[in-house]
Write a structure and sequence with these properties.
The structure is a homodimer. Chain A contains 5 helices and 3 strands; from the N terminus they run H-H-E-H-H-E-E-H. The first copy, chain A, is α+β, with helices and mostly antiparallel strands and about 120 residues long. Chain A has a domain of about 80 residues: Arc Repressor Mutant, subunit A (Orthogonal Bundle), CATH 1.10.10. Chain A has a 3-stranded antiparallel beta sheet. In chain A, strand 2 and strand 3 form a beta hairpin. In chain A, helix 2 packs across helix 4. The interface between A and B is large, with 66 and 66 residues. The structure holds a DNA duplex (30 and 30 nucleotides).
DNA sequence: CGTATCAATTGACAAACGTCGATTGAACTG
DNA sequence: CAGTTCAATCGACGTTTGTCAATTGATACG
């Protein structure tokens, strides 16, 4: 987990032909890249991606007790995945009595979404 | 790494109030979710995300020898990241003599991109 | 031929991950 | 109060990850 950037290739030419013409450089900032990678990583599990999908489509806040039976994993495992999504900011939660309700923070997906859509 | 889906919460009501009104269910198919999670996971590292960014912006095929000096990691580590991106189909490569050239398979990002953009 | 260069592979290692069962803590019920 | 229920946390486990140095394989040069 790092991504320090340098610049400029060396491009030795054995027979005179260069390996390539133009010099290449990154276009996203290091901090942008790190943030988007963090979001992508959180989405990089089928259960977590499905959780985000369910919560996004639902638009309201959804009780954990409704989410657990959707998956074939234990309650503690699902809680772990919810925590992971909350840790990176994709989800937020709210407690009401015994129950906990989760919902999506849509803005948190915007940067990655924009980048993926080809826009710089 | 699994994500088997069931259906229907149980929704016991201690005092008569249900924990929530509507029943929730996943909207993406299991195989879609698995595929998108695979792509997201591959993008879940700052170096790999930056590699995709560089190659996407560049539009032509880029020599590995130009990519290595952009990052503060060893040549073998970068090769490992490139392989990972190629394994999930985001990148393809082509050998010309001593050099190897990588380029983006843009369609491979479309499904995740569309999902992230709010479209089902 | 022997040497040099680029990129992929191997082997090692610590860190992070996904999963579970068991426990804990909080809040409601009777 | 004692008992129940929901969700979070803990402790353990096997697997995967990111990294490096060293090696290998392929190709080019003299």
């Amino acid at each position: 987990m790092s991504s320090e950037l340098k610049l400029m290739p060396k491009q030795k030419s054995p027979n005179g032909q260069p390996c390539c013409e133009p010099v290449v450089y990154p276009d996203v900032e290091r901090t942008q890249a790190a943030n988007m990678a963090k979001i992508a990583k959180a989405l990089g599990d089928p259960i977590r991606l499905t959780l985000v999908d369910v919560l996004r489509k639902h638009a309201g806040k959804v009780c954990v007790c409704e989410l657990v039976p959707l998956f074939d994993v234990s309650q503690s495992t699902l809680s772990h995945h919810l925590k992971k999504l909350r840790d990176v900011g994709i989800l937020d939660s709210e407690r009401r009595g015994l129950w906990a309700y989760y919902y999506v923070n849509p803005e948190e997906l915007d940067e990655l979404s924009a980048w993926l859509s080809g826009g710089s």
